[in-house]
Design goal:
Elements (H helix, E strand, L loop, with lengths): L2 E5 L6 E5 L1 E4 L2 E4 L4 H4 L10 E8 L3 E7 L7 E7 L1 E8 L10 E7 L5 E4 L3 E7 L3 E8 L8 E3 L21 H4 L12
Antiparallel strand pairs: 1-2, 2-10, 3-4, 5-12, 6-11, 6-13, 7-10, 7-12, 8-9, 8-11
């Protein structure tokens, strides 16, 4: 197996660290391998790759897609550093409303596995950060949802030194109690 998997305080959210082979030329790693990944989540077929670039202090999220087009994500930072967050939005879950935050960077090469039923967001910690993630479902506008990044009932401890830069959509996102969520 060419990756190390660490379970977080929410067991479905997992940190994945690939084996990195480095020498004086640079490094090589498998960022995704179907055989290895089947030990994290079986029967996953990724259908879309997304890539974003954000300047320092940009917060994106918390975003999700509802059934019938719920989305799981495998997230990594390929340039710079981010603080990546997943929030359990499954009302029937014992960890409903709880969150996990992990620093992902080009240097540490960690990835975060976020299954369906979780909202996802991140803040760029470096001057610029590029985030690349795989999804198991295409984007469907009619199924998209969001929650305010600063919802006090979730109480995410964002590592921010300044007021974040938000999109209009994220600035207008509902609080957890008003959002349409997973049952």
């Amino acid at each position: 197996m060419s990756l190390l998997v660490t379970t977080t305080s929410i067991p479905s959210i997992q940190i994945i660290e690939p084996k990195v082979f480095g020498d004086n030329r640079g490094f090589f790693m498998e960022s995704w391998n179907s055989n290895d990944f089947s030990q994290v989540a079986s029967d996953i077929t990724f259908v879309q790759d997304n890539h974003s670039r954000s300047k320092k202090g940009v917060v994106r999220g918390l975003h999700f897609q509802l059934p019938p087009h719920a989305q799981a994500k495998l997230v990594r930072c390929i340039y710079g550093r981010i603080f990546d967050v997943a929030v359990d939005i499954r009302k029937s879950s014992p960890t409903f409303g709880k969150w996990v935050g992990v620093e992902l960077s080009a240097e540490n090469k960690r990835q975060l596995w976020i299954p369906e039923g979780f909202a996802h967001g991140f803040v760029a910690l470096s001057d610029f950060a590029e985030v690349f993630y795989k999804t198991n479902e295409y984007w469907h506008k009619e199924c998209e949802g969001s929650i305010r990044w600063d919802d006090p009932t979730i109480a995410i401890t964002w590592p921010l030194d300044e007021t974040p830069c938000l999109s209009e959509k994220d600035n207008l996102a509902p609080y957890l109690q008003q959002a349409t969520l997973f049952e």
